[in-house]
Write a structure and sequence with these properties.
Blueprint lengths: L4 H12 L10 E4 L4 E3 L13 E4 L2 H6 L3 E2 L13 H15 L7 H8 L3 H12 L3 H18 L4 H7 L5 H11 L4 H5 L6 E8 L13 E6 L4 E7 L2 H11 L4 E4 L2 H14 L16 H11 L7 E2 H7 L6 H9 L12 E2 L12 H15 L5 H6 L1
Parallel strand pairs: 2-4, 5-8, 9-10
Antiparallel strand pairs: 1-2, 1-3, 5-6, 6-7
Helix pairs in contact: 3-6, 4-5, 13-14
Length: 374
């Protein structure tokens, strides 16, 4: 059976993290070399589009791949029983098109109690079995809509009992209504504004450069920092090819002003609404980032611990790097475990500026009596 995009993402994360829990349960082949490896192989990781997965060494060799001489994948290793059961649940959920099974049903198929299954599944996958199955259903719906099926037929084929249940979730899971998604986002309106920012701080150098702010009716969909206005506008057009881009309006200007006041050191950012499409893992990471207090920082391992996946440090770093909403989702507050600054999508210099700015914003203001005593 062909794996879903979701289950392959689980396996890919295991490879990136060199997770020993997946030993003996998955092997990956690299099309550019014709070699297959264990998930824990210490060799340089290939590009994702060159990787395919196998359930056994025999399956990889039957597909024409040679065993890696470094990790020797053909030598048997006893698999982790819990991971094996969780992967079996994933495969079972991928076959259930008409409905989402209950925890009791899933537990029966794996000889695990519903409570233990729920806890173990979330620990390994990062979401609950229901959230995983619901994401699978949305994935199937998207496939049917892209193939040109009517919304009614697509709903029936993917097991939605009523269209209202889908439309309630559509803005969060599709980023738009099913009808809009079916047209590849055509007609969706995105308001945007681009402005040059003044030099930052009391020294008046260096400047933050240019700022782009874009939003749908639901909230901010893109906040970017860049060197030129043209660069930022081209990136926006590339990201939202099928949408109707239009100049900003009074509501967007209010959000822009909040960002300008923040960058000017006038006030901290309020909780602005956002409208982004993301995986369940990315959403959990970004929510954790928004919970980091102003003027403080956290390490990638801190965030991994906070979301309950301590081995997912590299995946946390990738989620930070893919953040489309600069400043509002404060990925600049994440640093290396030793305290050093790590990479930042919009430049290390800007990251340092932002952290210095936030320390000033978080510092308690002196009262008149404090100043007199000082």
């Amino acid at each position: 059976m062909q794996r879903s995009i979701l289950s392959e993402e689980i396996l890919w994360q295991a490879v990136l993290q060199r997770d020993p829990a997946f030993e003996g349960l998955v092997f990956y082949g690299v099309s550019s070399t014709g070699i297959y490896c264990r998930p824990t192989c210490s060799s340089r990781k290939p590009q994702r589009d060159r990787v395919c997965f196998f359930d056994s060494a025999a399956a990889a060799e039957a597909a024409g791949y040679r065993p890696c001489k470094r990790c020797v994948p053909q030598e048997a290793i006893a698999p982790d029983a819990n991971v094996a059961k969780v992967l079996a649940v994933c495969r079972y959920l991928e076959t259930q098109v008409d409905s989402i099974p209950t925890l009791a049903e899933l537990g029966h198929t794996t000889a695990m109690s519903p409570t233990h299954l729920q806890r173990t599944f979330k620990q390994i996958v990062g979401v609950t079995p229901f959230q995983y199955a619901d994401a699978l259903r949305i994935e199937r719906l998207k496939q049917h809509l892209r193939q040109g099926e009517t919304i009614a037929d697509a709903l029936y084929e993917t097991g939605y009992g009523a269209s209202s249940r889908l439309y309630e979730k559509a803005p969060k899971q599709l980023g738009m209504t099913p009808a809009t998604y079916q047209r590849a986002g055509e007609g969706k309106q995105i308001r945007y504004a681009i402005m040059q920012l003044p030099p930052w701080g009391t020294t008046k150098q260096p400047s933050f450069g240019w700022l782009l702010v874009a939003a749908t009716q639901q909230g901010l969909c893109s906040v970017r920092l860049g060197e030129t206005a043209l660069e930022l506008e081209q990136e926006l057009q590339q990201e939202f090819k099928a949408a109707q881009l239009q100049p900003d309006d009074p509501e967007l200007q209010q959000w822009v002003q909040h960002l300008l006041d923040y960058l000017g050191g006038v006030q901290a950012l309020p909780a602005l609404p956002i409208d982004v499409q993301a995986t369940a893992f990315q959403i959990r990471v970004w929510e954790a980032l928004r919970a980091i207090p102003l003027g403080t920082t956290a390490s990638y391992s801190d965030i991994a611990q906070q979301i309950g996946q301590p081995k997912s440090v590299r995946a946390v770093a990738r989620a930070c790097a893919s953040n489309p909403i600069a400043l509002v989702i404060p990925c600049h507050r994440v640093i290396q475990k030793g305290g050093g600054l790590s990479g930042y999508r919009w430049g290390i210099d800007r990251k340092q500026e932002l952290l210095s700015l936030e320390k000033q914003l978080a510092a308690p203001e002196k009262t008149d009596s404090d100043q007199a005593e000082g």
